[in-house]
Amino acid sequence: MIAVTLLGGTGSIGESTLDVLARNPDLYRLFAVSGYRRLDELLQICQHFQPEYAVVPKEAAASFQQRLKSSGLTTQVAEGEEGLVWVSQHTDTQVVVAAIVGAAGLLPTLAAVKAGKRILLANKEALVMSGALFMDAVQEHQATLLPVDSEHNAIFQCLPQQFADKPLADQGIEKLLLTASGGPFRGWKKEQLKTVTPAQAVAHPNWSMGQKISVDSATLMNKGLELIEACWLFSLQPEAIQVVVHPQSIIHSLVSYKDGSVLAQMGNPDMRTPLAHALAWPERIDAGVAPLDLIASGALTFEAADDDAFPCLDLARQAFKAGGCYPAQLNAANEVAVDSFLQGQLGFTQIPEVIDRVLQASEPRPANDLEILLSEDGRARDLAQQTLKDFITN
Ligand code: NDP
Ligand code: MG
């Protein structure tokens, strides 16, 4: 029985993970699970899966422990960020699913890496922020890092098994093709985007996801973060990765080899596929996903991304190329801007403007130290908050 720690159990990835675990009860058990605001849902998860630990924010710990007890459960509560770190590095867990959204997932995910766990990485922001530091820790502590983000999981499946042993170019790989659905505003021009509402932005055509990543998909920042994520996971420069808009979300990404072969991974857009793949790898397990019906899906189409209407993708590319703390600053500014947009304050097209201002006002700093990274993350958030004030009052 493999014991799984699920960071972010109450979210969309959390729900998909729990579904796969429930389908494979002979193979996996839930060791620990975390929630943040949706504690009623967390209680239901505890009732169903009876994990050893549930992690909740400090202020909610005592009352949540009481609720567990009243439900007749022996699940113990662990508190706050320290609790998240503790369940991630615990000797009784082998697999950690990193499914907290945003920078809040960084420290527990890194703790899992440093404890040499198998990490199922959904929380792309953690890797975007800490890049080299994260990948060096994976090497040093011999952690097994498996991408859950559907595109990166697809690429992982299309690469040779030992791809990490030498540069991809030495293995006949010319480039990666990262697919993007284009989001709900594909084909829209800048002028039209000015007045879009949060409700329109979170209504993704193909995927059902948390609010933050849904907005990121609409601005194409999600693809920007994924470009950076792919650069780190596969040791590549952005020039070796082509973003291709593929509105049907059936091909999840591709690898192009120098003999002309292009390998793609396909399937219905359902996160249970990459989660099941990464849980069982190199084996395969049931994920509950309907088989792909190519005749029913119809034509698969491809187009270029519109960098003019959606500047976030290029902002991310430039931040990666500038290196150091720039990706962490980009991520922090994006989190603040998206939050403000979701609260109905900032306009949709102002999201990239806020990020650009923060990056312009930032100094180059090496990102080889966690403290520096966290302080730059905080500084970029403060700067983004100040910038918001200018934007919202004008
Ligand atoms: P959701 O918003 O649905 O879930 C986020 C999870 O993180 C919830 O469990 C939430 O708790 C928890 N959380 C939020 N803030 C904090 C915090 N400050 N401290 C601790 N926990 C916190 O997001 P998704 O599941 O959609 O996404 C999770 C991650 O996976 C993101 O990084 C996203 O980019 C990535 N991802 C998601 C995909 C998807 O299809 N959804 C696809 C690929 C990647 P609570 O709900 O209790 O408040
Ligand atoms: Mg993705």
Describe this entry's structure for a reader:
It is a single chain. The chain has about 400 residues and is of the alpha/beta class. The protein folds into three domains: about 1-150, NAD(P)-binding Rossmann-like Domain (Rossmann fold, 3-Layer(aba) Sandwich); about 150-320, no CATH class; about 325-394, Rna Polymerase Sigma Factor, Chain: A (Orthogonal Bundle), CATH 1.10.1740. It has 17 helices and eleven strands. It has helices at about 10-25, 40-50, 60-70, 80-90, 105-115, 125-140, 150-160, 190-195, 200, 210-220, 220-235, 270-280, 295, 310-320, 325-340, 350-360, 370-394, and strands at about 1-5, 30-35, 55, 75-80, 95-100, 120, 145, 175-180, 240-245, 250-255, 260-265. The strands form two sheets. Strands 4-3-2-1-5-6-7 form a seven-stranded parallel β-sheet, sandwiched between helices. The protein binds NADPH dihydro-nicotinamide-adenine-dinucleotide phosphate and magnesium ion. NADPH dihydro-nicotinamide-adenine-dinucleotide phosphate binds near residues 8, 34, 35, 125 and 149. Magnesium ion (MG) binds next to helix 7.
Key features?
single chain; 394 residues; alpha/beta; Rossmann fold; Rna Polymerase Sigma Factor, Chain: A; 3 domains; 7-stranded parallel beta sheet; 4-stranded mixed beta sheet; 17 helices; 11 strands; 47% helix; binds NADPH dihydro-nicotinamide-adenine-dinucleotide phosphate; binds magnesium ion
Set down the secondary structure blueprint.
Blueprint: E1 2-7, H1 12-23, E2 28-34, H2 39-49, E3 53-56, H3 61-70, E4 76-79, H4 80-89, E5 95-98, H5 106-114, E6 118-121, H6 124-140, E7 144-147, H7 150-158, E8 173-180, H8 190-193, H9 198-201, H10 211-219, H11 221-233, E9 241-245, E10 251-257, E11 262-266, H12 272-280, H13 294-297, H14 312-322, H15 326-342, H16 350-360, H17 370-393
Parallel strand pairs: 1-2, 1-5, 2-3, 3-4, 5-6, 6-7, 8-9
Antiparallel strand pairs: 8-10, 10-11
The structure holds NADPH dihydro-nicotinamide-adenine-dinucleotide phosphate and magnesium ion.
The site of magnesium ion has 4 residues, from helix 7.
